[in-house]
């Protein structure tokens, strides 16, 4: 059976995705900086690896067929951590995946990462980091899916999304649970080509919207 490495498995989306994969009896290696944050998870399908993303975490990827990069520096950190985690750690993860012949790399990116210059706000350094990480993955030679969610919310999963950006900016949002369920669908299905798409709450079932 295949094994998925989830980088950032103790973050909100990362943990939700870990739980969903385990419920579907998928083998998961959860990479976290502090394993106590996953102390409530028990499953014969789970292996927890404690490692700092600012160091060498290449060992965690060995034996894994798939990677989900869901790590992030967090809103309370400075631009230095954004550079080290959202860009450098993501680039290292892609390099490690390439060296270990990983079959599929799923990147959790962000709306606006396609063109950081289009947004003048404090988020620009974060979007630049995401943009560069996405570009590195796309040029790596790996099979990849890059998901760019809209503004994240804590709403319950509606299980309905859209990949079309709403005209109304206030509607360009998505629940973290919907993102996690979309990642589950992507991780447990085969796709014929590399893809980059945005993701928002919508009216279409996840399995149909994320073909």
Automatic annotation (TrEMBL):
InterPro entries with a match to the protein in the record: NAD(P)-bd_dom, NAD(P)-bd_dom_sf
PANTHER family named among the record's database cross-references: FLAVIN REDUCTASE-RELATED, UPF0659 PROTEIN YMR090W
Protein name: SDR family oxidoreductase
Domain of life: Bacteria
SUPFAM superfamilies associated with the record: NAD(P)-binding Rossmann-fold domains
Residue ranges constituting the NAD(P)-binding domain according to the UniProt record: 8-189
């Amino acid at each position: 059976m295949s094994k998925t490495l989830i980088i950032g498995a103790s973050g909100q989306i990362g943990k939700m995705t870990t739980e969903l994969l385990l419920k579907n009896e998928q083998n998961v290696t959860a990479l976290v900086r502090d394993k106590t944050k996953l102390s409530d998870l028990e499953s014969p399908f789970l292996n927890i690896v404690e490692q700092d993303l600012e160091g060498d975490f290449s060992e965690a990827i060995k034996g894994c067929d798939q990677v989900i990069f869901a790590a992030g520096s967090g809103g309370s950190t400075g631009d230095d951590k954004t550079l080290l985690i959202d860009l450098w750690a993501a680039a290292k993860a892609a390099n490690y995946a390439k060296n270990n012949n990983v079959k599929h790399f799923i990147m959790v990116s962000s709306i606006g990462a396609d063109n950081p210059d289009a947004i003048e706000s404090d988020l620009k350094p974060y979007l630049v980091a995401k943009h560069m990480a996405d570009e590195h993955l796309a040029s790596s030679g790996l099979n990849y899916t890059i998901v760019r969610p809209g503004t994240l919310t804590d709403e319950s999963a509606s299980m309905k999304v859209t990949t079309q950006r709403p005209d109304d900016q206030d509607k360009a949002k998505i629940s973290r649970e919907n993102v996690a369920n979309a990642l589950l669908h992507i991780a447990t299905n085969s796709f014929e080509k590399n893809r980059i798409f945005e993701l928002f709450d919508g009216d279409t079932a996840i399995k149909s919207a994320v073909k």
